[in-house]
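Re-run with default settings, no changes from the original entry. Doing this only to confirm the output is reproducible before filing.
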Amino acid sequence: QEWLGHSTFSTTADIYAHLDYKSKQGSAGVIANLLGESKLPK
């Protein structure tokens, strides 16, 4: 957290948890496209 300039661990965790979720969404989208699915469940 200090190296990244975040004042608290929760700030760091919130940012990286968000990025991880976005990465999973992107991967799911690629797989859905390969399988011919038009929409992902929310």
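Residues 24 and 30 are 10 Å apart (CA to CA). The two ends are 31 Å apart (CA to CA).
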